[in-house]
């Protein structure tokens, strides 16, 4: 008997049009797909075949007469538009209020407690670009040993430190200290280690970033799969997003190309359960930096590799492609995420093609995965498999 496997790939920030409540989040006429499709580098013929351009509300690209995929447009039921809330909802956890953000920096009492616990002073403490903050504060950090603490429009507490001044393992310990402090009303989505190297005027961030997420507050799809004895494999930042909860195996990636390659490698391995992949470059490198062409090229690369992924699927394998929020690179009012619907494109030899319209929650994905393995979900969400 063949074992069942689900490959769930999140194209981080690939929204497909603003939700009806987008204005409440400061977003007006946003649409990540529409913006990237205007680039001459946008080319997604394989996603077209699966039905991407047939989704509700999608007014770009040519519709496929007979899509190969089972498709739906998903609405976010949670309040928020960030990675943590989006991924939590995919796995069945709803957030009734957005995670806290700090447009004016963190409260003095938080900074004082953190500084005292680490034995180091703190620099910056305000929203900043990650590359600009080390440019502006890196020299002082190297001279004083003070930690560079900054945030963004996201619910994040980021700590940047030069690897020669603060060894990476020590930086990780400081992040764990911050994670313990940042709870309750100050329970930010993620504490992020941002190590860098180089000399003043020529600093670069290294790939040894590490995220310390808030733990999912209730049972998730991952917990239920693991409890049922299934493999739950995280590729990319999945393990960090769920704080390791429900994960049985994980591997980090250096970017989208590496994430796709590791997915292809898992397609060649024997396991029963879920391979959950996050491809972060769309958001981190292109969405926030408002790089339309870069975003389009990255999507086109994924599309180019898609036939190889599809060909490796076995008889009882399912592929699900989705997103966690929007980050419209054509939106010039802010560099923040954007409140958008996301696509759900499902494909496999056992999947019946069809358009399921618009669904009320990302959690339908979690319910679908559990249903495929014969597990009754312990959260709201309807299976889209049947």
Brief account:
The chain has 386 residues and is of the alpha/beta class.
Q: How would you describe this structure to a colleague?
A:
It is a single chain. With 386 residues, the protein is of the alpha/beta class. It has helices at 32-37, 45-50, 83-90, 108-118, 130-144, 168-181, 221-227, 238-241, 256-267, 281-287, 292-312, 363-372, and strands at residues 5-11, 70-74, 122-127, 147-151, 156-162, 190-199, 202-205, 210-213, 231-235, 249-251, 273-279, 317-322, 342-347, 354-359. It folds into 2 domains: 5-96 and 216-372, Alkaline Phosphatase, subunit A (3-Layer(aba) Sandwich); 108-212, Phosphopentomutase (Alpha-Beta Plaits), CATH 3.30.70. The chain has 12 helices and 14 strands. The strands form 2 sheets. Strands 10-9-11-1-12-13-2-14 form an 8-stranded mixed sheet, sandwiched between helices. A hairpin with a 2-residue loop joins strand 6 (190-199) and strand 7. 50% of the residues are buried. The model has no long low-confidence stretch (mean pLDDT 96).
Write the layout of secondary structure elements.
Elements: E1 5-11, H1 32-37, H2 45-50, E2 70-74, H3 83-90, H4 108-118, E3 122-127, H5 130-144, E4 147-151, E5 156-162, H6 168-181, E6 190-199, E7 202-205, E8 210-213, H7 221-227, E9 231-235, H8 238-241, E10 249-251, H9 256-267, E11 273-279, H10 281-287, H11 292-312, E12 317-322, E13 342-347, E14 354-359, H12 363-372
Parallel strand pairs: 1-11, 1-12, 2-14, 3-4, 5-6, 9-10, 9-11
Antiparallel strand pairs: 2-13, 4-5, 6-7, 6-8, 12-13
């Amino acid at each position: 008997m063949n074992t069942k496997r689900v490959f769930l790939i999140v194209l981080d920030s690939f929204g497909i049009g603003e939700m009806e409540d987008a204005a409440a989040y400061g977003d007006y006429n946003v649409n990540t797909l529409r913006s990237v499709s205007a680039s001459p580098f946008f080319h997604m013929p394989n996603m077209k075949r699966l039905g991407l351009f047939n989704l509700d509300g999608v007014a770009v690209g040519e519709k496929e007469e007979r899509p190969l995929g089972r498709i739906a447009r998903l609405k976010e039921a949670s309040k928020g538009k960030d990675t943590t809330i989006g991924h939590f909802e995919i796995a069945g956890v709803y957030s009734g209020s957005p995670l806290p953000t700090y447009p004016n920096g963190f409260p003095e009492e938080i900074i004082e407690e953190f500084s005292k616990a680490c034995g180091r002073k703190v620099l910056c403490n305000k929203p900043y670009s990650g590359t600009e903050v080390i440019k502006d504060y890196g020299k002082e950090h190297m001279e004083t040993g003070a930690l560079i603490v900054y945030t963004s429009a996201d619910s994040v507490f980021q700590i940047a430190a030069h690897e020669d001044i603060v060894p990476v393992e020590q930086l990780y310990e400081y992040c764990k200290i911050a994670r313990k402090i940042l709870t309750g009303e100050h329970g930010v989505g993620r504490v992020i280690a941002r190590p860098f190297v180089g000399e003043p005027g020529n600093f670069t961030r290294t790939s040894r970033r590490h995220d310390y997420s808030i733990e999912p507050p209730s049972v998730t799809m991952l917990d239920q799969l693991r409890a049922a004895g299934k493999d739950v494999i995280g590729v990319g930042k999945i393990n960090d997003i769920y704080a390791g909860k429900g994960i049985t195996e994980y591997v980090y990636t250096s970017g989208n190309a590496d994430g796709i390659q590791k997915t292809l490698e898992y397609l060649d391995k024997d396991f029963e359960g879920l391979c959950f992949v996050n491809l972060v470059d769309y958001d981190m490198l292109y969405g926030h930096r408002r790089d339309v062409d870069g975003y389009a090229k990255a999507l086109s690369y994924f599309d180019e590799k898609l036939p190889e992924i599809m060909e490796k699927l076995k008889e009882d394998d399912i592929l699900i492609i989705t997103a966690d929020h929007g980050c419209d690179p054509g939106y010039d009012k802010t560099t923040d995420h954007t409140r958008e619907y996301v696509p759900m494109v499902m494909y496999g030899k056992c999947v019946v093609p069809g358009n399921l319209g618009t669904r009320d929650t990302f959690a339908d994905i979690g319910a679908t995965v559990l249903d495929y393995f014969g597990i009754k979900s312990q959260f709201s969400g309807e299976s889209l498999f049947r």
